[in-house]
Prior knowledge:
Elements: E1 14-16, H1 21-33, E2 38-41, E3 56-59, E4 66-70, E5 73-77, H2 82-89, E6 94-95, H3 107-113, H4 120-123, E7 130-137, E8 140-144, H5 150-156, E9 165-172, E10 174-175, E11 179-187, H6 190-199, E12 204-212, E13 215-224, E14 235-240, H7 241-245, H8 249-258, E15 267-273, H9 274-286, H10 290-293, E16 298-303, E17 318-324, H11 334-350, E18 354-355
Parallel strand pairs: 1-3, 2-3
Antiparallel strand pairs: 4-5, 5-9, 6-10, 7-8, 7-9, 11-13, 11-14, 12-13, 12-16, 15-17, 15-18, 16-17
Amino acid sequence: MRDFGGIVERSPVRVVRPRSPGEVAAAVHEAASQGLAAVPRGLGHSTYGQSLTSGVCLDMRGLAGVHEVGAGHAVAGAGTTWREVLDATLPHGLAPPVLTDFLDVTVGGTISAAGVGGSSHLHGTQAANVLALDVVVDGEPVTCSPGIRPELFDAVRAGLGGHGVITGATLRLVPVPDRVLCCTIPCRDAADLLRVQREVRADDLSGQVKPAEDGWVFEAKATLHSGGPPPGTAETEELSFLEFADRLRPDVEELVALGEWARPHPWGMVFLPASRAADVIGSTLASMTATDLGLSGVILVKALRVGHVPMLAAPADPVLFSVLRTASPDSAPLGTMLAANRALLTRAETVGGTRYAVDSVPR
């Protein structure tokens, strides 16, 4: 069995497809009695085997579905994708305050990894916007929240499944606009990109670095629910909220057609202290070319708030620097890309940074 990263392979002793929290509890209890780990798996979008196991694989897609949409909240099974969440909430004019850029990952999967989105500079991670969780811990289904078993609530959010299996979540919802204005702001370098992210007021804000003939091109992406474009904007596009939230779908379809989606994805992802982020980003890019990124590789820079998520190890005032490599034909070899991820992590740790545990770094 493989995950999206396509680097690590593991064969589980068996795959269990539970359809209720009780069936998850039974599977976890049986696995424990046999001395086996029970590892939850949503859509397997991890990049270095985090959703794989040699024990019991719990296929959580059987726990999909949005069971309730109320004023300011929705109740969803852990195997529900964020696309399915939006399908249920948008008819009510509501959506989660933080969405992943790629919607076809599961609620339980991203909450267990923290979940960073374009609005995380305002609202923190997805894990910081959960009102309550249903969890199987020690083979028993329980509910936890900030007021009920708060120590468990804090342990399972961004806990990578190590402290319990999330089976359902009560998600915070906020009103959404009918239309959004998407703005592209060219930047001189990494420091300028981070300056724009500090100064621009936007509802969704991120940065991207693209290869060019003479080096690298930096640009900020700012999306506004109201008002005009920020200073320095070079391009604008008006989209519906759903078109913006699902903006990656055409790109993914193209990558699938090209075969790039199925290639290994050795992703390097680190949290950097904002005061040192530009230096680390600059030194990393100075040692890279487009070949080191791969045909469909992407480099993202995102200043964010973490929120109260104790299990997420990140410096104060963090910047998420993501070098999302693809091992394309004629790109750098996979082993070279993995070694570059290790070097990035070392560079980050030297300045007080940490790894984002969904990355591809040889342990």
